[in-house]
Amino acid sequence: MVAFLPSRPGRLADVPAFTRAVGGAESNTACALAAAGHRVRWISRVGADGFGDHLVAAVAAYGVDVSGVRRDPHRPTGVYFRTAADRAGAAHEVVYHRAGSAASAMSPRNVPYEEAAAGRVLHLTGITPALSPGCRDLVAALTARRPGRPLVSFDLNHRPSLWPDPATARRVLLELARGADLVFAGEDEAADALDLHGPDAVREALPEPAVLVVKAGAAGATAFAREAVTGHDVRVRVPAPRVEVVSYAGAGDAFAAGYLDAALRGLPLAARLAHGHRAAAAVLAVPGDLAPPPGPAAPAPAPPVAGTGRREAVPGPPPASATGPVAGPATAPATAPGGRVGGGGADCGRLRPGPRRPQTGPDDDEEVRTR
Fold first, then answer.
1. Order of strands across the sheet with 94-97?
2. 17, 7 in Cβ contact below 8 A?
């Protein structure tokens, strides 16, 4: 969607002017991966209007392939307005106009599986299935396990205001996450959406993904990676850096991009988490949804986490499985032939200068970041 960002803090009713930007979970991740040097395609639908023109041009400017974006002559491009928080961590006021938007019309009928599955990684989020029954069917088809599919990455991204009821959200998000190879979940959203409290509870409910990453904001992130030989989990925790927070919007998308960037470069699990933190920290320090990517991903040791009963280690790149690489393609950067990363959904953001407030901030999006 097109995002309208306020010229100053305050109630939406009191903001005198807005700056046009672009916002959306999947395309934020796509733009960040393209900026890091990977070949990326973004698949979505926008209206045949000026806002759609702006979105496609803005995403393409990051080097993302937008040939998979379709124009809908009958439905508009969605828009939303949000306020700036008066202090770090405060909730934002959001008003969006997205009912019947072009993106909500995505379905298996107009997004061919072969097009979505053409990359090495297919990145999806839990926002898209909340937009409409057709979008839900599309994400269900893309997460269905089948031979030869790409690695399926799924970010939970729970947005309560988009779902008809909590029970439906819990059922659908659990089903979709269980079909993925790699799952990202915020500890807070897992508690709110799935009634699962703590990383171990999330892993117990989601044993199917080969890798599960549970983010706990300033407390860091915990990853569970299933070993191919023993079938047992390796559990790694990496703390988050301290950040001067300007805005939380887009940080979770950046974390996913940082993790996938490191995974595509064949780095071990702890280095993937550390690079995800660095990418999220860069976005936390700016008012928009995107920031220049951090330096090249590099290996980093993870501190031991005691008291879980699981073996603690820093694994190397996992072996391939029948459904694709276990934790992200252990290949050269996706600028090499065949290294494309695909994603479906809405749009990406811009950078604008703004004041910084000292704060140890989470590495996940705030609840009001909807599309």
1. 18-22, 2-6, 79-82, 94-97
2. yes
Residues annotated catalytic, as ranges: 253
Q: What is the pLDDT of residues 110-134, one digit of tens each?
A: 999 999 999 999 999 999 999 999 9
SS3 (DSSP) at 70: strand
- Parallel/antiparallel/unpaired status of strands 94-97 and 324-325: unpaired
Q: What are phi and psi of 144, to 5 degrees?
A: -65, 130
Which residues have C-beta within 8 Å of that of residue 362, sequence separation ≥ 6? Answer: 186, 188, 215, 216, 217, 218, 248, 251
pLDDT per residue over 73-119, tens digit each?
999 999 988 887 555 555 578 887 888 999 999 999 999 999 999 99
For the chain, state the CA radius of gyration: 19
Amino acid at site 333: P
Residue (of 8, 25, 314, 24) closest to 153 by Cα position? 25
Instruction: Report in angstroms the alpha-carbon separations of 262 from 167, 274, 352.
Output: 35, 9, 27
Residue 204 has, within 13 A of its CA and on its CB side, a CA count of 10
**H or E stretch including 321?**
strand 320-321
Alpha-carbon gap, residue 308 to 145, rounded angstroms: 30
- The structure's pTM equals 0.79
User: What's the pLDDT tens digit per position in 42-58?
Assistant: 999 999 999 999 999 99
Strand partners, 344: 43
